[in-house]
Amino acid sequence: MSVNDRGTIKWTSMMLPEHVELLNQLKEKQNRKQKPILDEQQLEENGFQLMMAHKDNLLINIKYYANYDYHNIKGYIDKINYQDKYITMVEKVSSGNYTRINFDVILEVTIL
Hints:
- By secondary structure, the protein is an alpha+beta fold.
- The chain is 31% helix and 32% strand.
- It has helices at 9-12, 17-30, 40-56, and strands spanning 60-66, 69-81, 86-90, 98-102, 106-111.
- The longest helix is centred in the middle third of the chain and has 17 residues, at 40-56.
């Protein structure tokens, strides 16, 4: 004897739209990622890679944390602001599309 279980499909027709929305929000909160804590060695390596890429105008990939998830951006460093602790990146030299990334959200810097 087998049971044909349709999972949550059989219950969604009896649920109010507000309940469905709350369940979706709960699912989204459960899928959130936490920002990892970087050790001193990784922070120093990231700083070294950023300075080297800025000095030699090298293409880099930065993995950073924003909106409870990890993101990657490839481009060239336009400016490093040590006082306000952020970098400005341009995705392509001719595009003029600038992105500002704070130092405290940078997880990993890779020179490509």
